[in-house]
Amino acid sequence: MKGRGWRRIGIVLSVMWFVGFFGYWFVVDYSERQEAHVQYISYCYSKFDWNTQRAEERRAPARSYSGNSGPVVGMIVAVDLATILIGWLIAWVVIAAVRWVARGFAQNA
């Protein structure tokens, strides 16, 4: 029963980290992809003659690229969960080390 409050604080912080980290990287990834997409479309328009019969064929690369503009949600979630797991492992190691050292001092007293 010891440390139940600390565990709850850890859970709340983990949820806050998950939501904040995911939201931040989702926005960053989306804005980077959007900027790259705009540059790619600008390049396409500057290099191709859009008034020919083959204009539709030349638009195809831009359309296929725009379909891949969403963020890689799975990877963001995996990294997010990995950072939470590493945080809990570090906390567990620190708590175990502190208790081990405290037991050593308690035996000598």
Protein model, in words:
This protein is mostly helical. The model has no long low-confidence stretch (mean pLDDT 77). It is built from three helices and no strands. It starts with a helix and ends with a helix. It has one domain (4-108).
Secondary-structure blueprint of this entry?
Layout: H1 4-47, H2 55-66, H3 73-108
Helix pairs in contact: 1-2, 1-3
Percent range for β-strand residues: under 5%
| Rg | 26 Å
Number of strands: 0
Indicate how many domains the architecture comprises. Answer: 1
Question: What is the share of helical residues?
Answer: over 70%
Give the SSE order as H and E letters.
HHH
Unreliable runs = none
What labels would you give this structure?
about 110 residues, mainly alpha
Q: How would you summarize this macromolecular structure in one to three sentences?
A:
The protein is an all-alpha fold and 109 residues long.
